[in-house]
TrEMBL record:
This is Phosphate transport system permease protein. It comes from the Bacteria. GO terms for molecular function: phosphate transmembrane transporter activity. Part of the binding-protein-dependent transport system for phosphate; probably responsible for the translocation of the substrate across the membrane. It comes from Solirubrobacter phytolaccae. It holds the Pfam family BPD_transp_1. The keyword Iron-sulfur does not apply. The chain crosses the membrane at residues 29-50, 70-103, 115-143, 170-193, 282-305. The lineage of its organism: Bacteria, Bacillati, Actinomycetota, Thermoleophilia, Solirubrobacterales. GO terms for cellular component: plasma membrane. It is a multi-pass membrane protein. Residues 78-305 form the ABC transmembrane type-1 domain. Keywords: Cell membrane, Membrane, Phosphate transport, Transmembrane, Transmembrane helix, Transport. GO terms for biological process: phosphate ion transport. Belongs to the binding-protein-dependent transport system permease family. CysTW subfamily.
Length: 315
């Protein structure tokens, strides 16, 4: 043992920190710089959006698109974005958790390994393909379901109808988004479920718990923060998805709680993608202002998720 190692060991025994070498200082500086770069990039994006959106924020309603206020212009887009992302999360999270549990704790290895590859492969499919699949396959196949919802659950505003004859509805768009975010949520939760300590699982089984009771009492509590984190990652993908929604959704521009009709609000991301190439002047600033709202929404959602995760860790 060298003299420097002896000094470090004596420092630790005395309760003081060991002196870092050159490698430690370089790593600390690199990590600090990387963290600062991320914060600077985030601040730069926010400043850019705010500066470009400011002319639309301060302009009168007569000068903005459709001669309406900026709030009236963005609100339907924000409503459509939140509705589509909410449907996606409600559909995708239970399915993703179930798939992750099946792969990590139920399926034989010869089945689990290929199935995990197939789930991960869903993330590599371009969003345009998902949009085309929604129009050509899922939309027409969903028409009987939409008609059943309208006939039997029409008293609920969400399924008031009349049902769309093409399937290009907000409900179908949400299901397509759910399929798109499924591999993200599944991959994160599966990796954490597989890290559940074996002693906890074996202890639960030794005490007479069934497989489901073992999963409910050990695996799910251990992976609770991972489920929340994965859900927020999927929600961020759903909030910002562009092409699949732009191709699939039949847009009317108004606000409607009806999820199975032909009249649907657009989303912020798809509206920017469709209108930006032909816009100029204040119309561009209005589109950037809607992007600023989407940026703020995503930031708030991720901050809320981080607060929930930190609370779970402390508990």
């Amino acid at each position: 043992m060298s003299a420097a190692d002896v000094d470090d060991l004596q420092s630790v025994v005395r309760g003081g920190p060991a002196k870092g070498g050159v490698g430690d200082r370089v790593f600390k500086g690199f990590a600090t710089g990387a963290g600062g770069l991320i914060l600077a990039t985030l601040a730069g994006v926010a400043i850019f959006l705010l500066v470009k959106a400011w002319p639309a924020i301060t302009a009168s309603a007569e000068d903005l698109p459709n001669q309406e206020s900026l709030v009236a212009y963005i609100w339907p887009l924000l409503f459509g974005t939140v509705v589509a992302a909410t449907i996606a999360i409600v559909v995708a999270v239970p399915m993703a958790v179930a798939v992750a549990l099946f792969i990590s704790h139920i399926a034989p290895r010869r089945i689990a390994q290929p199935m995990s590859y197939l789930i991960d492969l869903l993330a590599a499919i371009p969003s345009v393909i998902y949009g085309l699949w929604g129009i050509a396959v899922l939309g027409p196949a969903a028409v009987p379901v939409l008609e059943w919802l309208s006939d039997n659950l029409g008293f609920i505003p969400l399924f008031e109808g009349p049902a769309s004859s093409t399937g290009r509805t907000m409900l179908v768009a949400g299901v397509v988004l759910a399929v798109m975010i499924l591999p993200i949520i599944t991959a994160v939760t599966r990796s954490v479920f597989e890290q559940t300590p074996r002693r906890l699982q074996e202890g639960a089984l030794a005490l007479g718990a069934t497989r489901w009771e073992m999963i409910r009492l050990t695996v799910l509590p251990f992976g609770k923060s991972a489920i929340i984190s994965a859900s927020m990652l999927g929600l961020g993908r759903a909030l910002g998805e562009t092409m699949a929604v732009a191709i699939l959704l039949s847009v009317s521009g108004g606000i409607s709680p009806n999820l199975i009709g032909s009249a649907n609000p657009s989303t912020i991301a798809s509206n920017i993608a469709l209108d930006f190439p032909e816009s100029s002047g204040l119309a561009v600033n209005a589109l950037i202002a809607s992007g600023l709202v989407l940026f703020a929404l995503t930031l708030v959602v991720n901050m809320a998720a981080r607060a929930v995760i930190n609370r779970q860790v402390r508990i």
